[in-house]
Specification:
- This protein is mostly helical.
- It contains eleven helices and four strands, in the order E-H-H-E-H-H-H-H-E-E-H-H-H-H-H.
- The strands form two sheets. It has a two-stranded antiparallel ribbon. Strands 3-4 form a two-stranded antiparallel ribbon.
- Strand 3 and strand 4 form a beta hairpin.
- Helix 8 (184-193) crosses helix 10 and helix 10 (209-216) runs antiparallel to helix 11 (223-233).
């Protein structure tokens, strides 16, 4: 076979999708069909584009579905957990309904947890939080989740601004003028100093890796802050904000 192209079954294996679904996807991408009995050839560029759009789950051990693998990867790469099924869905690239169903099955299997935690967001309150229970995963699942590629998330102008719920942390600045792109090191320093899991999660998701590393060079950085950032940067895809 010409390695400048792939077959539809190979694309299905990489994406973790059924062959029927892949053929529908290729139809939408205007990849020509070669007719009955002939292998459909797929340019690598088409596969790369679909991986960016849909993610990839090349392994699905223990009978897990593609959606469950994407959800597990989304939580495994969220060291502080996620507040809702909708947040998990956005990371995994699936619908909130699909994410909710996957989370409930994974919860029943003991592979994720959903517990109330105290969070300081202006005031202390209790919030339920989804987390991966990676110590409960066997070796085959750990390896398979590491191979998952999550869909790329579209960045919007709003994602660059400091959320209003964190404005009180910038008492000597005007937070509405701050930008994650232009002021990343400063924002990271302030939010990592906060006793707020939500603030830490926002920093890791929105601040570039170079700014995170510079923020760790400040005086007074704690071992907890350093471990949090180092563990995040060690995860696959953590440098996507560079």
């Amino acid at each position: 076979m010409d390695r400048a192209s792939l077959t539809a079954p190979e694309v299905a294996d990489v994406l973790g999708m059924s062959l029927t679904a892949v053929h529908r996807m290729l139809d939408s991408a205007s990849v020509p069909s070669c007719g009955r009995g002939k292998s459909r050839t797929v340019p690598p560029s088409v596969l790369a584009a679909e991986v960016r759009r849909r993610g990839a789950t090349p392994e699905k051990p223990l009978g897990h579905t593609r959606a469950e693998m994407l959800v597990l990867a989304a939580l495994a790469r969220s060291p502080l957990g996620r507040d809702s099924a909708r947040e998990v869905a956005a990371l995994a690239g699936v619908s909130p309904t699909t994410a909710s169903a996957a989370l409930q099955r994974l919860l029943a299997l003991g592979l994720v947890s959903h517990n109330a935690e105290k969070v300081a967001r202006g005031r202390v309150r209790s919030m339920d939080r989804w987390r991966a229970r990676q110590r409960a995963w066997d070796g085959s699942l750990v390896r398979a989740v590491r191979r998952v590629t999550l869909p790329e998330r579209e960045q919007t102008d709003a994602s660059d601004a400091v959320p209003r719920r964190f404005h009180h942390l910038f008492w000597n600045a005007k937070p509405v003028r701050l930008s994650a792109t232009q002021d990343g090191e400063y924002i990271a320093g302030r939010l990592l100093d906060a006793d707020d899991v939500g603030a830490w999660a926002w920093v890791l998701e929105h601040i570039g890796s170079d700014d995170l590393r510079r923020a760790l060079s400040r005086r007074g950085v704690t071992d907890r802050q350093r471990a949090l950032v180092d563990n995040w940067l060690a995860e696959p895809g953590a440098d996507r904000h560079r």
